């Protein structure tokens, strides 16, 4: 969380930083700021709010220069405010720093620095960095040595960049646990939390590793390891396409990403399916190991956790492997027992989620192999896993995860089929039957999307409801959890998802004409049981919103609002049923005047535990 960007080159730095910060806004958006060396002096501009507020501040109080650093914040230490916004400076405003991460020992360091006479103006952990550097500079030969001496004093996870008035051509940096990438353009250098902030100007990149630090000028990059030894760095071509970062004519990224789902599914099909064979060419786990796996533990968070619950059902159905699913932040503290050939599967869109990363470390400490399913294949989770599977969802910018979720579901299903084939548990004919159904998915999703106007009407009618219940069973129990999460996070409406069977054990007490119940009731094996749930709600005069299979007449008759999805096999229903619910949360947010791409208090990459 928090995004950092730095630039040195020949362009006007304020506009370069603003473009970078807009691209990084998904990482946090409660305040933002820049520091620029302008006429030999450090100038700071900060603003509470979004990047557009900072842009206005820069319009009113312009800065000029060719070197600077910028930050967009998601508050951890200290409330969102102008004072707590980055960049932070030392006592003489000669050193400016932007930081992403948490300095865990900042209390102690702050206390020690205060004893030496340093005065702090913010409540942040980050402000200690420029003061520590200032202190080190008193004895060091220059900034390089001061930085080298500062880094070992910092405990926690961080990446930060520094500009220093006395060395006005260089940007200094360090990475330990939070992402940082170097981008090279023509006579210009960038540093950023994410490569999206530096394209299309930067053509080549170098992804820094934990423990690395160094400095850049407009044409040079110098990287050092923890011992101060300079390390080789070879630049790689940046493959990300700037077009992916546009809204493509949609009002919000979230809506664009919902509409991209047919293409995402097509991309996965064409890359992963060849006849009745399923392919995962990028996955580096030895075949004999995968054939031996006797237990799977899935660890993930939020939407990715919901995908994990469905993944468990796939693995148990097709591979007959006992599978557990755990929320990442719980997994690492429950002292998981890893015995025999247990494989840990980590699922993460961003590949940077701190809780999931901590789960991976826990798994590795127990000698389990870790396979991650990640959308960002250059991420920390991909790098720290024994092998990864690319979700192939394309860049997801909307804070609410949509297309990455359906990509997770399909990749998990295909991987379960892949395992079933290497364990000789499925025949090519059985796989072909499933594949035929999978191939029909993109068109079926398109059919669902054509009904968006109907969902928009629901949102108009239901926008004032304060509480929602979501019910689903079996493959669609996680759909109920996910539908409720989407509504909460972007519309700020309270919603709870339950397994239909659990309803009578307590939540049914909530039913009233004020609380609409969203029933996910496609025609699957457990359809009759969902019909019973709907009857129970109806008997108590609850308002019923339902998702049903086309051709069914019973469920729509019992419902006030109902939406039909095309027929498909049970295992694929969650890929279709979630789409009207994604649209519902989106239109509810719009109707209620909320900002769907930037919900309050949230950030796209949750890099703190
Ligand atoms: C919800 C959402 C979050 C993420 C969660 C895990 O729409 O996006 O719940 O799913 O923070 O993130 P990743 O998948 O990046 O590990």
Going by helix content, strand content and strand pairing, the class is: alpha/beta
What is the CATH topology of the largest domain?
Glutamine Phosphoribosylpyrophosphate, subunit 1, domain 1
| Uncertain runs | none
State the separation between the terminal residues, measured CA to CA: 11 Å
Mean pLDDT rating:
94
Number of domains: 3
Strand % is: 15-25%
- What percentage of residues falls in helices of 4 or more residues? 25-40%
Structure ligands: fructose -6-phosphate
Give the strand order, joined by hyphens, for the main sheet: 3-2-4-1-10-9-11-15
How would you explain this protein's 3D organization?
With 609 residues, this protein is α/β, with parallel strands linked by helices. It folds into three domains: 3-244, Aminohydrolase, N-terminal nucleophile (Ntn) domain (Glutamine Phosphoribosylpyrophosphate, subunit 1, domain 1, 4-Layer Sandwich); 252-439, Rossmann fold (3-Layer(aba) Sandwich), CATH 3.40.50; 448-598, Glucose-6-phosphate isomerase like protein, domain 1 (Rossmann fold, 3-Layer(aba) Sandwich). It has an eight-stranded antiparallel β-sheet, covered by helices on one side. It is globular and about 75 Å long. Bound molecules: fructose -6-phosphate. Fructose -6-phosphate is lined by residues 301-304, 348-350, 353, 356, 400-401, 485, 489, 606.
